[in-house]
Design brief:
By secondary structure, the chain is of the alpha+beta class. The chain contains 5 helices and 6 strands. It has a 6-stranded mixed β-sheet with strand order 2-1-6-5-4-3. The protein is globular, with a radius of gyration of 17 Å.
Length: 155
Amino acid sequence: MNIEALAQRLQVLEDIEAIKRLKARYCAFCDDGYNPDGIASLFVEDGVWDGGDTFGTCEGQAAIRKFFTGAPKQLPFALHYVMNPRIEVHGDTATGHWYLFQACSYAKNNQAVWGAATYTEAYVRVDGEWKFQRLSVAPSFWTPYEQGWEKKPFV
């Protein structure tokens, strides 16, 4: 293996780590009261946050910022635990899949909730920095803490 091939392999590993840090920043902003400016800054200008039928879809940084401005009114507490990343890098674009396990509180009835979901994401490198092009979240369950996912998979 020549030095150029090693440099390419190293670049892929560095890109994967940079994408992991991007995801960690997203989770930290979410867990810090859903910081709308912070979250929006992680997306490209025309980025998409897609919560599907459960949460809706936001297109563009302004819409993402607006959505997350209202999030603490619905979910005043959340801890995002993401795991099992599968990241594929293709030059200046990449894709990722993650699992989410989340403890949170719904403002309505001050209800403790467990959540689990799968993230499917597209990333793009802009001026040397990785950003979200699209973040899609597909819930597996969103259940009251005291009932669990077996008795009531969705609240």
